């Protein structure tokens, strides 16, 4: 069976700094019409960064949509024309004060394919160097740097201080690769 939905009409609702919202009228495979509310996003990166003493580099920050503070791996939005690897290095430097000469691409995945096209590219490094001069965060970004063990990270999952898919993925990835 062909599951494709053909877009008949697009109504652009909102265009902001991070997302665009649109409502599409679509022709379903059974010939009926329906509406789809869609969020368009430029994509993002996330970095699994391990220190030389096997600690995971994390950031703590407030997430307004959830009205709570989360502990997450460093991550950020792709800028127009910027490759995911360049974005990953920039975000690592801005959010953590570390840099690296070795970023390994791990995978990418869609965050919420039912309504958004956001894709996250995940990178790994265990070759960190502390920057001599820390880079500036975005003017509306406030983060606290943390380095934690995988055991501590698993406890933070249980307490829901870590409660986002990319960070849970990172911890499971490291466990599967034999990190302790």
Automatic annotation (TrEMBL):
Pfam families: NUDIX. It comes from the Bacteria. Residues 39-170 form the Nudix hydrolase domain. PROSITE patterns: NUDIX (PS51462), NUDIX_BOX (PS00893). Its EC number is 3.6.-.-. Signal peptide: none annotated. InterPro entries: Nudix_hydrolase, NUDIX_hydrolase-like_dom_sf, NUDIX_hydrolase_CS, NUDIX_hydrolase_dom. Its cofactor is Mg(2+). One of its GO terms (molecular function) is hydrolase activity. It is an enzyme of class 3 (hydrolase). Keywords: Hydrolase. Belongs to the Nudix hydrolase family. This is NUDIX hydrolase. It comes from Gracilibacillus marinus. The lineage of its organism: Bacteria, Bacillati, Bacillota, Bacilli, Bacillales.
């Amino acid at each position: 069976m062909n599951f494709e939905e053909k877009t008949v009409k697009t109504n652009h609702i909102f265009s902001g700094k991070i997302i665009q919202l649109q409502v599409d009228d679509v022709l379903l495979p059974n010939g009926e019409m329906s509406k789809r509310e869609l969020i368009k996003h430029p994509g993002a990166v996330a970095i699994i960064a391990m220190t030389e003493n096997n600690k995971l580099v994390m950031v703590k920050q407030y997430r307004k949509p959830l009205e709570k503070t989360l502990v997450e791996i460093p991550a950020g939005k792709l800028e127009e024309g910027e490759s995911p690897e360049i974005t990953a290095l920039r975000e690592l430097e801005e959010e953590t004060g570390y840099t690296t000469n070795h970023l390994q691409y791990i995978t990418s995945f869609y965050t919420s394919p039912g309504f958004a096209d956001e894709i996250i590219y995940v990178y790994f490094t265990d070759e960190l160097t502390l920057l001599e001069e820390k880079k500036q965060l975005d003017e509306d970004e406030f983060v606290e740097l943390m380095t934690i063990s995988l055991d501590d990270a698993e406890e933070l999952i249980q307490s829901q201080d870590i409660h986002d898919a990319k960070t849970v993925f990172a911890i499971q990835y490291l466990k599967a690769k034999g990190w302790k």
